[in-house]
């Protein structure tokens, strides 16, 4: 009898231990995942009943909570909604949360593990719980300048600090007003949300880091030129064939330069630096094929292609194809075929060149402070990779400066400031409008700002426009606003 009781007792104890471990795993080990799950509405509703922390730019709130007389006690408000909406995202009762609001939700709502003692203190003292404030790396002057310069174009402007990876401006247009989604009237929020979803201009998509990514066109020639110099087989003065047209091997397709003739300023051959300055497709198609698809893929990956980044939002991975035949490799060598990129990724390429070949991990988060002003996080620059050598970076810088001073990137020229830059005009299919790009950095001799401009839909010009007069001019306007202050 005693033996049977012991067995039953051991069995009951084993059951309790199993239940205890399971509950601990779910409540403690899976706490972060459960809190972040969009389906966990209780966490979202609870976060309304505490004072959510502010999102700050240069010490000024671009999102904060105000007291209201309803069951939720606080409502989110955005004082400069359109300029920052792609960064802040939205915070809603019924349609989830995005942007910094989503990626930093646990800190803003005060539910992160590092804020546990603050929650206990609130319970013991009877004080209302309060979330942490998130300070962003954005420069308000640059953000405003980027917003103004982009005007009515659909696209994006991204500015980073080459030496640290801090994102100083990140604008996406068309934009939206997150205030209409912050209402506590669920019907109103759903109506506004559905209208935004139905808008053909896709204002909810952050074009700087996501969406239907665009082919980078000629700005990708920087990656190919980097691969050539890094191979040790080429210098900036290496000669490439310079025909007026080139039929792709085993294909009926013919590649042309933008001027439908030979690369300007050269004869039967052209140097790599001339081809980059004049943005000629044929020499880069030849160069890419000679280097080989694996060398191009390896170089693109070093710059960050085929990887996502947590800034803290998760960025879409810019892509360079892993499988290509020779014709496809040649098209990819000037940013066509299936090459796709975000403006942030292209900004990382320019920033790496400006930073002696070092790619820094991009971020929007400068610091996180709890309500007692105790720091929960402080920014520390981290290196993602050494994409190219310092010597290659210096050579590419010279070529990009030449492109602004004497080539197709001349619209980005600023009096008294050396600007390094590269334009790109990408094709999107038969009859489809072009995509315009500019990427570069300034001052070229002591880089403080790396900038990338994306203009979609041909800037309203279909296939008639060029990137320099539009994207290059936007970059100039943004850089002048900061360098001229």
Automatic annotation (TrEMBL):
Pfam family, one: Transpeptidase
GO BP terms, alphabetized: cell wall organization
EC number of this enzyme: 2.4.1.129
Coiled coil: none
Domain Penicillin-binding protein transpeptidase: start-end pairs: 155-480
Keywords: Glycosyltransferase, Transferase
GO annotation, cellular component aspect: plasma membrane
Molecular-function annotations in GO: glycosyltransferase activity; penicillin binding; peptidoglycan L,D-transpeptidase activity
Keyword rRNA-binding: no
Gene3D superfamilies, A to Z: DD-peptidase/beta-lactamase superfamily, Penicillin-binding protein 2a (Domain 2)
Domain (Penicillin binding protein A dimerisation) ranges: 52-134
Domain of life: Bacteria
UniProt xrefs under PANTHER family: PENICILLIN-BINDING PROTEIN 4B, PEPTIDOGLYCAN D,D-TRANSPEPTIDASE
Protein name: Peptidoglycan glycosyltransferase
Organism whose genome encodes this protein: Alpinimonas psychrophila
Taxon lineage: Bacteria, Bacillati, Actinomycetota, Actinomycetes, Micrococcales
């Amino acid at each position: 009898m005693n033996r049977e009781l012991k067995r039953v007792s051991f069995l009951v104890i084993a059951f309790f231990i199993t239940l205890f471990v399971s509950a601990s795993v779910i409540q403690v080990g899976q706490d972060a995942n459960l809190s972040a799950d969009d389906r966990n509405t209780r966490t979202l509703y609870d976060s309304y009943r505490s004072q959510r922390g502010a999102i700050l730019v240069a010490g000024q709130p671009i999102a904060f909570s105000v007291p209201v007389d309803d069951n939720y006690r606080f409502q989110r408000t955005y004082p400069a909604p359109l300029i920052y909406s792609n960064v802040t995202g939205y915070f809603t009762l019924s349609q989830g949360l995005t942007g910094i609001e989503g990626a930093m939700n646990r800190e803003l709502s005060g539910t992160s593990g590092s804020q546990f003692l603050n929650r206990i203190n609130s319970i013991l003292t009877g004080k209302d719980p309060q979330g942490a404030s998130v300070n962003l790396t954005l420069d308000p002057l640059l953000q405003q300048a980027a917003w103004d310069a982009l005007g009515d174009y659909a696209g994006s402007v991204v500015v980073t600090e080459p030496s640290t990876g801090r994102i100083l401006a990140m604008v996406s247009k068309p934009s939206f007003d997150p205030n209409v989604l912050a209402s506590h009237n669920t019907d109103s929020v759903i109506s506004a949300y559905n209208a935004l979803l139905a808008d053909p201009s896709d204002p909810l998509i952050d074009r700087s880091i996501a969406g239907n990514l665009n082919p980078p066109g000629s700005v990708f020639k920087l990656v190919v030129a980097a691969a050539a110099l890094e191979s040790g087989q080429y210098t900036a003065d290496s000669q490439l064939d310079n025909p007026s047209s080139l039929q792709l091997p085993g294909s009926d397709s013919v590649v042309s330069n933008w001027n439908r003739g030979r690369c300007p300023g050269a004869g039967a051959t052209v140097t790599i630096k001339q081809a980059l300055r004049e943005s000629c497709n044929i020499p880069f198609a030849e160069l890419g094929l000679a280097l080989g698809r694996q060398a191009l893929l390896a170089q693109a990956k070093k710059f960050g292609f085929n990887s996502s980044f947590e800034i803290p939002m998760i960025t879409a991975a810019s892509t360079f194809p892993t499988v290509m035949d020779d014709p496809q490799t040649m098209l990819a060598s000037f940013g066509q075929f299936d090459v796709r990129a975000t403006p942030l990724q292209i900004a990382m390429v320019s920033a790496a060149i400006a930073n002696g070949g070092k790619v820094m991990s991009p971020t929007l988060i400068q610091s996180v402070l709890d309500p007692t002003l105790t720091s929960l996080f402080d920014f520390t620059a981290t290196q993602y990779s050494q994409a190219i050598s310092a010597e290659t970076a210096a050579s590419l810088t010279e070529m990009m400066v030449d492109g602004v001073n004497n080539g197709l990137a001349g619209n980005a020229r600023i009096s008294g400031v050396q600007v390094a830059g590269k334009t790109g005009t990408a094709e999107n299919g038969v009859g489809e409008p072009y995509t315009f790009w500019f990427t570069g950095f300034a001052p070229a001799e002591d880089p403080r700002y790396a900038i990338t401009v994306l203009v979609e839909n041909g800037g309203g010009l279909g296939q008639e426009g060029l990137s320099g007069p539009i994207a290059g001019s936007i970059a100039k306007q943004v850089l002048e606003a900061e360098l001229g202050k």
